[in-house]
Amino acid sequence: MPTRTALSGRLLYAQSGGVTAVINATAAGVIEAARAKGVQVYAARNGILGALREELIDTTKETRTAVAALRHTPGGAFGSCRYKLKSLEANRAEYERLIEVFRAHDIRWFLYNGGNDSADTALKISQLGKAMDYDIRCIGVPKTVDNDLAVTDCCPGFGSVAKYTAVSTLEASLDVASMANTSTKVFILEVMGRHAGWIAAAAGLAGEGADAPPHIILFPERVFDEQAFLAKVKATVERVGWCTVVASEGIRNAEGQFLAEAGTRDAFGHSQLGGVAPVLAALVKEKLGYKYHWALPDYLQRSARHLASKTDAEQAYAVGQAAVDYALAGMNAVMPVIVRSSDAPYRWKVEPAALHKIANREKKMPGSFLTRDGFGITAAARRYLAPLIQGEAHPPHGRDGLPMYGRLKNTSVTKKLPTFEH
Amino acid sequence: MPTRTALSGRLLYAQSGGVTAVINATAAGVIEAARAKGVQVYAARNGILGALREELIDTTKETRTAVAALRHTPGGAFGSCRYKLKSLEANRAEYERLIEVFRAHDIRWFLYNGGNDSADTALKISQLGKAMDYDIRCIGVPKTVDNDLAVTDCCPGFGSVAKYTAVSTLEASLDVASMANTSTKVFILEVMGRHAGWIAAAAGLAGEGADAPPHIILFPERVFDEQAFLAKVKATVERVGWCTVVASEGIRNAEGQFLAEAGTRDAFGHSQLGGVAPVLAALVKEKLGYKYHWALPDYLQRSARHLASKTDAEQAYAVGQAAVDYALAGMNAVMPVIVRSSDAPYRWKVEPAALHKIANREKKMPGSFLTRDGFGITAAARRYLAPLIQGEAHPPHGRDGLPMYGRLKNTSVTKKLPTFEH
Hints:
Two copies of one chain form a homodimer.
Chain A: E1 10-15, H1 23-36, E2 41-44, H2 48-52, E3 56-58, H3 64-69, H4 92-104, E4 107-114, H5 116-126, H6 128-131, E5 137-142, H7 158-179, E6 186-191, H8 198-203, E7 216-218, H9 226-240, E8 243-248, H10 276-288, E9 292-295, H11 299-303, H12 310-328, E10 334-342, E11 347-354, H13 379-385
Parallel strand pairs in A: 1-2, 1-4, 4-5, 6-8, 6-9, 7-8
Antiparallel strand pairs in A: 2-3, 10-11
Helix pairs in contact in A: 1-12
């Protein structure tokens, strides 16, 4: 190995898993911080697969304006992937390939931007350098709309989907309230959340008090109780005139089955869910006879950069910058996490946390966040959630009325290695 | 009858049918214009039903600030309804009751804010004064997300749902593009539009060119051709890597059946649709094997005041003001309509049009707006649609991160008549 000066070598950045409205703000934080230190950033095309395939993007070819536009552009600018590396024992060849690619392109810092699975991958790679005699520092960078990463107070990406969910709940409820006298009485909004009801909980910010929407939130943390649900829908319609229900996609019955089981699985082996809202709507119609409407925003909720939380966008950028700082300072196997010091006024900072405390763990919603009947959120939940949706971060709009989302050139780095079969 | 001065009597305003993101801007236009002329405005609670039931709201109890807030508040502030008056022959009692209520509260002008059906109701009422020897002037005020009113160049409410649809298509497509390498290849967005594909067409503003999303739009104006659809999905995924489909809820097969027929009907006798997206998704999965996601924003699309078109919000306000001007000038059986004099720069004005030219008619999308294969929009469609989504009209947001939507007191007017059984 050649002798290295303090900052010789390149930094590789990759996005992993489901993208968010603000993951590109993290990318902007990474690239701008590295540029300020004179370090070149490569990005992996389609996440870790780009690293395995040696499909790298040279971000030095992008203008300052293009990089800055990432701060307000949803989706994953370099492509993401759903691909989990196996254990070192099970597939040593993949890890060796990664080191081979790193070595070929003088990658000395690897920043992996994702959720639980990605933190695990980042942890494995951080331990690899020693095992394979290659000096690589690996930093996990938090991102997930699911808000289920351990240690960090919240996850970049969550605040914006939380804001989208609260605002959509409020707006649709105003619509339903107008129509309820002769038309729709029950409105059901299905939101993301396989195992944790963080997004569903955020809908609770739309209103406070028994008569304010959402009247019922269904959390995956609680077994779906059909009788209690129907009784509350009926009582709400009779008292308020209409009822807004927000349902997490991951709710299950007493037998542990997803109400919306689709029977298919994604690349991580997770069930591919979707469609609990129509199941609930049919139930309401059959048992109570109320006219219903239901909505399932799916990707709209996690890509709605036009409605991003300013708090979230700022945190996403900050963890990108911090990750570069940590990497260049020689840290390894850490993740920049959000630390909250005050709810109101909201105060937060970014600190490094050990990846082994984060990888493969899942932050559950505290029991104290759910009301006794399990259909609402408590004051403690409001104190936690409220700051995360604060502030607007409107993207610039063009004269055509559309947000001016950025687009990168994504210039490929010339390959130096033979093709790898994975 | 007592002798009347020019502006003696009250004005009654009612909202009808499905509400929009900007129908309250029309209400603000009505109330502010009437106040400027010293005329008191009553509003009917829950549309025409409030008039029949003598459930009237005294808007003079609302502050200037509360009325001004209507300009940025979605839903229907006084309640709307799905209720169509029968013909004069079939239910003369209802019409007599309306006149009775008007007479009891000195209602001399009636403004009915709705779509095709409501224009028909307004026309009937406009003819009633003479038949029943009561001096009432009736003005229809346009409103519908469906954009299917005759004569007017566009309908207040449409521009905002068009903007929501275009922006959502763009944002979700950026998400899909990031994930397509290992995950979702086909994304299907279902939008409103029973008989006309105006909203679906607006999705076309998200991008231009064969590779830009949406790659396929399915219009109710064209028979759904499964083979052609699947062939285009396949070709798009093979060429671009992914495919965004926008489907109108009202698409039908060659037998004339709705793909999403739910078998239930609303109060106007229309089929209650919803759920063509999962049908298409299942088809894509079964025939092509691609991983899919689908979204069905339902009420979110028509209540998304946070993303309203400035053009639309301004037109909604302007037709409210014009309706008052026409009424107080003694006009009857007219509707203020939008007249376009230029596409670019966009120029429009409001003019009165005869209700009999509008009632019960339906503006179809011109054949020249659809591409030859029926899966996209033409340059002519873009010229028409583009101005309607221009400009942002962000509502003010509170420190809590939510839009500051207004709420009226809606003080009831004391009833003077016996209960009416309808």
